[in-house]
Amino acid sequence: MVCEVIKVGKECAFMSKKGCSFNGGKCYPIIDRCQGCERATVFPAGEYCIACPDPAVKWSGRDCNLATHIVKEKAPEAVRSVDPLKASKRKAAGR
Ligand code: SF4
Question: Which atom of ligand 1 has the smallest separation from the CA of 40?
């Protein structure tokens, strides 16, 4: 249903005919670590995340997995050691 509490006009899975069913009956504002994220959106009630109702929980323990402003470093690719003797045999066999 469409939210009528905080993110007014946004479709939300927590909204029901009885009101917001999320913890405390409302969403919670973004936290400092959300600054710069494209999902942080200004509503009349303040700045909230359009992807989750409680940003502090998203950041507890680890980085938010939905954040658009943090670049995750790729793990370096494992370098396979090549045995030159086996490689030449493979090449000779046409594999
Ligand atoms: S997606 Fe994560 S980082 Fe971005 S606003 Fe929401 S909780 Fe904050």
Answer: 5
Residue 68 inside a domain? The answer is yes
Instruction: Give, for 57, the enclosing helix (H) or strand (E).
Output: helix 55-59
Answer whether residue 6 is part of any domain. no
CA 24 / ligand 1 centre spacing (Å): 19
Q: Is residue 5 part of a domain?
A: no
CA-to-CA separations, 35 to 22, 25, 79, in angstroms, rounded: 23, 24, 37
Pocket of ligand 1 (CB under 6 A): 30, 34, 37, 39-40, 49, 51-52, 55, 58, 64, 66-67
Domain that holds residue 23: 15-93
Cα separation of 1 and 52, whole Å?
15
Question: Does residue 2 lie within any of the structural domains?
Answer: no
Residue-wise pLDDT tens digits, 27-76? 999 999 999 999 999 999 999 999 999 999 999 999 999 999 998 777 67
pLDDT tens-digit series, residues 82-93: 788 887 888 888
